[in-house]
Amino acid sequence: MAVSVHDESAIKALLSELGEKPFRYAQISQAVYKDAVPDIDSITTISKELREKLKPEVFFFTLKLRSEETSDNGQTTKFLFETHDGKLIESVIMRHLSGRNTLCVSCQAGCPMGCSFCATGKLGLFRNLTFAEILEQFDFVAKRLAKEDRKIRNVVFMGMGEPFLNYENLKTAIDVLCNQKKYDISNRRVTVSTCGIVPGIDRFAVDFPQTSLAISLHAPNDETRKSIMPVENTYPLSDLMAALDRYVEKTNKRVFYEYIMISGVTDHPRFAPELAELLRGRLAHVNFIPYNPGEGIMGNGMLPTSKLLIKKFQDALEKADVPSTVRHTMGDDIDAACGQLAMKEKGESLATESGKSISSAFSKKAE
Ligand code: SF4
Q1: Is 90 a catalytic residue?
Q2: Using one digit for the tens of pLDDT, what is the confidence trace for 193-249?
Q3: Does the structure show a pLDDT above 70 at 360?
């Protein structure tokens, strides 16, 4: 069976089987990651004979670009890819005015977590992505941006899926992204976002103490969180906050809390002081995200909160010495919120094709 060019141990084993010296891997790695070659034929630092032997054994790219859309202001492009087995996944590049470029990648096809405000949650889970499929998203967009004379500076695991339910592939993908001899992205510029899988947070603190962690908090109390995020049934807020305290103790890193502002759901005036009290004294930064209803494709009747009310939340946090920002919504005109493009392409029928339920996903949660 052919192996991905990103599978270092498999390529090394293959080279050894072919009787090649170990330094051949360094030549291949240099060509793939530093010279950005598109295929084996382009690795001219190894012999033609070896290239011919490797060609049927090693693949570069399995994802097919199904569609792409760029926002009217040209800042955001959303790519919809199809996997070899017909699953749809999304990646989004955000070209910030400051010049930095942030890539948002997916780690699962669909998602089993069922958050009520999220288009991906409506799809259900199809399967975990392999580390190669995660890296192919990066590789494709990096090559595309190179044509614009731009580089990806930040990578966020905030696309489709719950990263900590696909921990091993996430880990390998981050290792390749941050390897200085490979893509050489700074660990600090990689952010993994979880809805609150406690064992995953504990493991992440040990494996990636330099990598940033974002938490989809979205509510300051159990009751409201439970009403929009089924994860709360398995990992209640008290367990989540205890895990985050352990994380901060171990890494001394600030945790980014994502808080989606949905009118009448997460923005009750009493939630502002409640959120401030929850985070007071904690190493935290809150990102308020105005809800993106996605041209009604969600069908949940949810609407974004007014700017004025978001400001009241920010004021309450400021009084508690908790810094916050309001995320600039990029790409509203192209359904850039996670899962919206796939949802639009396939329609609601996808949800019924999903073979996994939330409970089955938890049974294989990261330990
Ligand atoms: S918000 Fe994240 S965890 Fe929740 S359903 Fe969407 S992709 Fe899954």
Answers
A1: yes
A2: 999 999 999 999 999 999 999 999 999 999 999 999 999 999 999 999 999 999 999
A3: no
Which residues, including other chains, have CB under 8 Å from residue 311's CB and lie 6 or more apart? Answer: none
Ligand 1: residues whose CB is within 6 Å?
A: 111, 113-115, 118, 120-121, 160-162, 195, 216, 338
Is 211 in contact with 233 (CB distance < 8 Å)?
Answer: no
Distance CA 193, CA 120 (A): 14
Kindly report, residue by residue over 158-204, the tens digit of the pLDDT.
999 999 999 999 999 999 999 999 999 999 999 999 999 999 999 99
Q: Which residue has the higher pLDDT, 70 or 341?
A: 70
pTM over 0.85: yes
The pick from 195, 216, 229 for probing ligand 1's pocket by mutation, whose C-beta has the most ligand atoms within 8 angstroms, reads: 195
Taking each helix axis as running N to C, give the angle between helix 167-178 and helix 198-207, from 0 to 180 degrees, rounded to the nearest 10: 30
Give all domains of the chain, ordered by start, each with its CATH number. 3-59 (1.10.150.530), 64-362 (3.20.20.70)
The candidate with the shortest Cα–Cα distance to 103, out of 134, 63, 62, is 134
Q: What atom of ligand 1 comes closest to residue 160's alpha carbon?
A: 7
- Per the listing, tokens 């007071």 go with 280
Catalytic residue among 82, 90, 136, 162: 90
- How many other CB atoms are there within 10 angstroms of residue 162's CB atom? 29
Angle at 194 between CA 221 and CA 67, to 5 degrees: 125
